[in-house]
Amino acid sequence: MHLARLLTVGSPQPLRSVAVIISLAALGNAALIGLINHVAETVAVREEIGPRMVLLYLAIFAFYYIASRASLKEANRVLQDRLAGLRLRVVGKIRNTPLRSLEQIGHGHLFAAVAQEINQLAHNLPIFVAAAQSAFLLAFVLLYIAVLSVPSFLVLVACVALGGSLFWRRRIALNRALAQIYDREAAMMETMGAFVEGFQEIRLNADKNDGLYRHFNEGLDDLEGAVVGVGSRWVSLLQFSNAFVYALVGVVIFVLPLFFHGYDDTIYKIAAAATFCIGPVTSIIGASHLSAKAEIGLGHVHDLEAKLDRAAVAPGPPVAVSRYAGFSRIEYRDITFSYRTPDDETVFATGPWTFSLNRGEIVFFTGGNGSGKTTVMKLLSLLYTPDAGAILVDGRPVTPEARQDFREMFAAIFHDFHLFDRLYGLDDVAPEVVQAQIAEMELADKVAFEAGRFSTLDLSTGQRKRLALIVSRLEDREIYLFDEWAADQDSHFRDTFYRRILPDLKRRGKTVIAVTHDDRYWDCCDRRIRLSLGAMEDTADEAAGGGGGGPTWP
Which Gene Ontology cellular-component terms appear in the entry (predicted)? Predict the structure, then answer.
């Protein structure tokens, strides 16, 4: 069980402490039931209730209240700590997962597992804790009944075992139906995503808009029918459980006296105790429905963990100075890579190609859409691990253990870049330095760097790219990757990028790789590489700088 797996991760001592406190609270509750029955019996025979009895009641009640409150708080703390550990474990695996594996898993699956499923479980934890307390209470009530009448105890235990088995069989069927609802909800989310991501297209085409809406409505009807069906089965299960408890009370009152003599003195105590169990049983049943959902949700989380484990790459040991600092030449030999479907069908491939990169040069990559430019950028920076081939830095092969150290040489702004609101990893940068670069990029009237973060990221794409360029320059890496950075800039900043920023990086000994379609600026590079369907073509003779070190291909 996934819930049991969650609870057993880590030290068992906190859970043992919680179990002890919950059992003490349940024991106090059961003691209250026994005392109430005793007082009722005293009143029935017209005996006086002395102050000692009142004080005893108050003492037991105080014990129960304190233990119950402590158990709920401590259990919630321990379980929330377990969930926090689960979140950290999953995110820790995500951050060490290769990019391509993460793309294949899908962002939707990641967010659903880390946010939706775990958050839902976190919100329901108090209900589970209360149900655990109810379960302990039922155990102590049964022990109380055993003290009153062993035959009654045995009959009730047999009936509870029978009812529990029937309930469990129905719940298993209900769990299967719940899993189908999750699949339908996922399909609905995909359709809703199509509405959002394709909003511009459907606003331009009424027929497409209507067709997508009909598809959404059909899925909604399907989901509604499944939810109503599960709800009806859950109501039936709840009614069955409640009816079963009342049937037990009926057995205690009407059936047991027929078979056991001397039962008259204890019947009302046993009946009162059995009736008192209705509330705890209802609590347990309600929690069981939520636990079924939690099982499915945690199953998704653990499935994600299994995928991440299969794709995981152990991070290399941290180093104070990169082993590749001050490199002179990088060689990529016979590199191949392909995108594959889950059925292992190749949908795009690049290579084999051989390419070299020298310190301090500017290399432009050009090519049409779908030619593989972004894929090559990710291969050059080892965000994608090649299927075959070798990478050498100054003649030394980049081993699997050194891949992260190799990646640390790169600062990149891809076309789908993410802009963080804080300078993560740059804790020592002076705010005035950041503010000066903001002014240089003519963003001072749009954004400021305050309290260790940018005041806003609500900017145009071109302005966000300028802010990303500031961050990449502050990172001060060896190699800079720009994936069509100038595409969203006006003519002024496009000219600034090619005529001033790139030459400045070159003067500082930085290497620049830029994907571009701006043929007016091809004279700004030392080499230009044309890509076509994953193959490289050297056009160094067309670039102002010329030079060797170009690619080869089969």
Answer: ATP-binding cassette (ABC) transporter complex
Q: What is the pTM of this model?
A: 0.67
Cβ distance 372 to 350 under 8 Å?
A: yes
Q: Which of 280, 269, 281 lies closest to 144, judged by CA?
A: 269
Are 408 and 326 in contact by the 8 Å Cβ rule? The answer is no
- What is the domain count for the chain? 2
Reported as a single tens digit per residue, the pLDDT across 284-325 is: 877 777 777 777 777 777 777 777 777 766 665 555 556 787
Range of the domain at 286: 14-311
Q: How many CB atoms lie within 10 A of CB 264?
A: 9
Identify the sign of the CA torsion 105, 106, 107, 111: negative
Task: Supply the DSSP symbol for 428.
Answer: T
According to DSSP, the residues that pair with 364 across neighbouring strands are 514, 528
Inside any domain, residue 393 = yes
pLDDT > 70? residue 541: no
Share of the chain above pLDDT 70, in %: 89
Please tell me the predicted confidence (pLDDT) of residue 175: 72
Q: For 378-395, how does the pLDDT look when each residue is reduced to its tens digit (9 = 90+)?
A: 999 998 889 899 999 999
Tokens 């009926």 belong to residue: 250
Order of all β-strands in the sheet with 396-397: 346-358, 329-340, 388-393, 396-397
Q: Comparing C-alpha atoms, which of 167, 170, 182, 177 is closest to residue 284?
A: 167
Highest mean pLDDT of the ranges 31-45, 113-127, 311-325, 524-538: 524-538
Answer yes or no: do 271 and 381 share one domain: no
Q: Confidence band (pLDDT; 50, 70, 90) for 543? A: very low
Phi and psi at residue 535, to the nearest 5°: -100, 150
Q: Residue 227 to residues 183, 192, 240, 321: CA-CA distances in angstroms?
A: 12, 18, 20, 58
| Token pair 């789908």: residue | 416
SS3 366: strand
Distances (CA, A) of 486 to 194, 307, 434, 463, 472: 29, 37, 21, 11, 15
* SS3 label, residue 179: helix
